[in-house]
Design brief:
Layout (H helix, E strand, L loop, with lengths): L1 H16 L5 H21 L3 H16 L6 H17 L7 H16 L2 H22 L2 H26 L19
Length: about 180
């Protein structure tokens, strides 16, 4: 039961990730989700998925520090190597494609563009999970697809009205009463 319990925790962390308008918080929460779902996959005995999720968690944290093309290339090669090593059916390429494009998005894109590319990546995972018969995985990724899609529309509408949905509002520093 520990595996499914962590799956529920991962779901709750993941579903709220897409509400974050601040990209740093978005990436941090996405990394936590990836780590928790990675542990979930390991406990279920699906080691390639667990390794991929842990790699995603590390990759996402690293994008907070660098946008280096070299670092991005390393993660793309690692993802391709891990994904292609166990390739047996064309549908199994979808998570590899999804992870590679999300790696590119996290290193090279910002704002709405990053969200749209991440949405495409999620589409790849939903199709794969459905094909693989993973009901929980399909539900989690399907929920992410819906939540991120709704937020993309909301953020796009904000941009049309001239509002930057990704501008982080800072609280002004406290005023010292001594002057």
């Amino acid at each position: 039961m520990a595996g499914p319990g962590r799956g529920v925790i991962a779901f709750l962390i993941g579903i709220t990730t897409f509400f974050n308008r601040d990209e740093r918080r978005f990436k941090k929460q996405l990394s936590v989700y990836s780590a928790v779902i990675g542990v979930h996959f390991f406990l279920l005995g699906t080691y390639p998925a667990g390794a991929s999720a842990i790699l995603n968690a590390i990759r996402t944290l690293i994008t907070l520090r660098t946008r280096s093309l070299w670092v991005m290339a390393i993660f793309i090669v690692l993802t391709g190597g891990i994904g292609l090593a166990k390739f047996h059916h064309p549908v199994e390429l979808l998570p590899v494609i999804g992870t590679i494009v999300s790696t590119w998005a996290l290193f090279r894109c910002k704002g709405l563009t990053m969200r749209c590319v991440m949405w495409f990546s999620t589409c790849c995972w939903v199709i794969h999970n459905f094909w693989a018969g993973s009901i929980g995985g399909t539900m989690i990724e399907g929920s992410f697809l819906l939540m991120n899609g709704l937020n993309i529309i909301r953020f796009w509408r904000m941009q049309k009205r001239g509002i930057d949905p990704f501008k982080v509002e800072k609280t002004p520093p406290a005023i010292d009463e001594r002057g």
